[in-house]
Design goal:
The chain is α/β, with parallel strands linked by helices. It has a single domain (19-174), classed as Rossmann fold (3-Layer(aba) Sandwich). It has six helices and five strands; from the N terminus they run ααβαββαββαα. It has helices spanning 3-17, 20-32, 42-57, 89-100, 147-168, 172-177, and strands spanning 36-40, 62-64, 78-82, 104-109, 122-125. Helix 4 (89-100) links the parallel strand 3 (78-82) and strand 4 (104-109).
């Protein structure tokens, strides 16, 4: 089997173990939120930024934490965090701020018992290798460090976009109308 086939097979294994009913609950939280602010560290940030862009294309009020135009969060808002290994100090701090402000905190992780989980109102388990389990006997992927989790985030977010389009009755034309013309 080629490295490509191995990597794709590993992604397939992640999604065979994913609870799609839990994904639907996340989609529902996004659909009913006044605004969604997202956060991820490192390469997870790249994936969740792409998801925020697609939410913007759908006409949702979405922002990426750390951008100059990120609004304050509060009641009725959703703070969506990816934290594959279950803890990074920045995620923990920002989750605390969002909770204190009254926002709902939703975390996507491979480590639901990690230190950040206690600050989440809702957790979506994405069962993929991260840097928390990429060495020794725990290693389950040919991909390095947290690459399996990060790749799975991309696929997860694309499927969530499809589910949101259906849930909110958003057409491809409506999304295209929100796409930049400055490219």
């Amino acid at each position: 089997m080629s490295l490509y086939q191995t990597a794709l097979s590993e992604l397939g294994t992640v999604f065979a173990r994913l609870d799609d009913a839990q994904v639907d609950l996340v989609v529902e939280e996004i659909a009913k939120a006044r605004r969604v602010v997202v956060f991820g560290g490192g390469r997870e940030r790249l994936q969740i930024m792409g998801f925020a862009m697609r939410m913007f294309h759908m006409g949702l009020n979405a922002a990426v934490e750390g951008d100059m135009t990120t609004p304050a969060v509060g009641k009725g808002d959703l703070f969506l965090v990816t934290c594959g290994p279950g803890y990074i100090s920045t995620a923990q701090a920002l989750m605390g701020v969002a909770r204190e402000a009254g926002a709902k905190v939703l975390m996507i992780t491979a480590q639901p018992d990690g230190r950040c989980a206690a600050l989440a109102d809702q957790i979506l388990l994405l069962p993929a290798q991260t840097m928390a389990d990429d060495q020794g006997e725990k290693k389950s992927s040919v991909l390095p460090m947290g690459s399996l989790f990060e790749g799975a985030l991309f696929v997860l977010f694309e499927v969530m976009v499809l589910k949101l389009k259906t849930r909110l009755n958003i057409s491809a034309d409506a999304m295209r109308a929100n796409h930049t013309n400055l490219e």
